[in-house]
Amino acid sequence: MSTPHKAGFVNIVGNPNVGKSTLMNDLVGERVSIITSKAQTTRHRITGIVNTPEYQIVFSDTPGVLQPKYKLQESMLGFSEGALTDADILLYVTDVVEDPEKNADFLAKVAREKIPVLLVINKIDLVKDQKELDDIVIKWEQRLPNAEIFPTSALEHFNVKGIMERIIELLPPSPPYFGKDALTDKPARFFVTEIIREKILLNYDKEVPYSAEVIVEKFDESDKAIHIMAVIYVERDSQKGILIGRGGSKLKKVGTEARKDIEKFFDKSVYLELFVKVEPNWRNRDNKLRQFGYLD
To answer: CA angle at residue 63 from 20 to 139, to 5 degrees?
Structure first.
C-alpha cells in the first residue's frame, strides 16, 4: 500500500533578530526571506514552499514579535499572532542570548498551543560549553513544557537537517496546497521590493531603513531581460536627501547592489530604475498601509 501524500503549514515565530529568516532560507533551500543584522527586517509573512513527490511543506516566516510603537508595527504583530492560528506545526525560534522573559505574553500563547511546537534554540555556536547549553535548555523546558527542543546553529547549518526530518514526520496526510513547481505564494514583484529594501537596510543607519517602503511600479519581462521601475517612499525630505546621497551616489550604490541580486534571483539581465518620493507619516496612515500591503 502506498504512503499517502503529506502536506502542511509550518509557521516560524519568535522575537526579532534570533535568526528566523536565516533558518527559513536554510530549510527552504532558497533565498526567500531577506536577511540583515538589523531587527525588524521581515515586515510581511513570507512563504517558502518545499516540494518532493511525497510531501509539500509551506513555511511561513513572520515579523519578529515586538511591542508596537506605530500602526505598521501593529500590522506586523498581527502577522505574527495570525501565524499561531493557522499552522499545522509551529517553529518557535529563540537563541542562546535572548532573555526567555522577553514578550512573555506571546510566549504564553505559544505554550497553550495544541499543535506540535518545535523550539529552536539558535546560535549555539556562541555557547562556551555543554553546561551552559544544558542550563539554557532547562530554562526553556520550564516555559514551553510541551515543545520539542532543537539546539541549532542556522548560520553553520548545524541540526537544521534534524529539524527538517522531524517536520516531515509530523506533517499530516493531505494533498498539496500549491502547485508542485511553486517556490512561494508571493508574486515576482514582491521579491524585487524585498531585495531593494534589504540593500537600504544594509546601506543606511538610524531611522531611514525603517521609514522606507518600496513599490514596484513597472515590471516588464521579456525572454532575456526585465525592466523594473521602483519607487522608494520615505517619510521626510531629510530622509530623501540621505537616501539619494551627494550627486545621487548612495542611491546608485543601492541600485547596483539590488540589480545584481535581482539578476541572480530571476536569472536574467535587469534594467533597474529607482526613484525616491516623500509620503509623510505613512507608517501610521491606514490608506498607505493598505496600499503597501500591510492591511486588508
So the answer is: 55
CA 127 to chain centroid, in Å, comes to 25
Torsions phi, psi of 224, nearest 5? -110, -15
- Count Cα neighbours of 103 within 13 Å in the Cβ-side half-sphere: 21
Exposed e or buried b for every residue in 1-34, given b needs 16+ CB within 10 A?
eeeeebbbbbbbbbbbbbbbbbbbbbbbeebbbb
Strands across the sheet with 269-278, in order?
213-221, 225-234, 269-278
Q: 7 is written with which cell numbers?
A: 502536506
Q: Could you read off the pLDDT of 69-107 as tens digits, one per residue?
A: 555 556 555 555 555 567 899 999 999 988 877 778 778
Q: Which of 42, 32, 131 is nearest to 93 (CA)?
A: 42
Q: Greater confidence, 53 or 257?
A: 257
Q: Are 163 and 170 in contact (CB under 8 A)?
A: no
Residue 225 grid coordinates: 531581460
Q: What DSSP line would sit under 250-275, residue for residue?
A: HHHHHHHHHHHHHHHHHTSEEEEEEE
